[in-house]
Write the structure tokens for this entry.
Amino acid sequence: MSAQAGIFDGTELWLWDLDSASSAPTRTNPENRSALAVIAGTAASPRNLPCTALPETLQSPDIPPLSQDHPRTVTRGEEVTLAGFIAQNPKFDGILCLPSATSTLWAHVSAEEIVSMRRFLTGTLLGAAFDGLTLGDPEAFSEALSDTMSRPEHAALRLAALKTAVDLDEIAPTEATSRATAALIGTELAATRSYWLGQPVAVIAPAPLRAPYRTALESQFVPVSQADGHAITLAGLRLARERLTR
């Protein structure tokens, strides 16, 4: 029987088959945790930055999250993805960007350690009024991004105007969602400028979530690489299993 590992995101439990060639996770009831080889997103005691993404040894199947006091940030499974990427790219020194449907975590990596983190509730904010992270037309996306980066304090105003335009059938919902995505990512880039300016950035997520961030960063002439979030997370979970002492 194949060993399974999981990540609890606060609502749902996502399972990976550690012995499968497929990196795609499946969703299950959060109560189905007892037989897992390793699991992230539990109440395990967090590890404070700076530190490695995973401890050298795990005393139990519960993978400890990473914690930072200012700004207050705690990972919920992303430590596994960070570990998987660093294991495959040990010489990487720069910024990792991990978008999800609810939030985006930015992490500064140096000498195989996580130095600092920033989290933005971009996906949650988009989902409240639009349809989630969407690239749409790259030219219109980049224009909306540039406008927001020049005046990030107007981001909420732009979202309200786009929502009104959708309600009045003046713009297609998909295109409005794309421009709203650009506006919120624009505020992220403005807030993290000291992070990514002059640094390589790796965007780690499934392809639909990577696309808007890649386009946004490339429009700012940032050297961007990409990695599939599911595959990298599976690699991190396998690494965690290897470090389990019992």
Remarks:
- The domain at 1-246 is CATH 3.30.420.310 (Nucleotidyltransferase; domain 5).
- The helical segments are 78-88, 122-129, 138-150, 155-167, 173-191, 193-196, 207-219, 229-242.
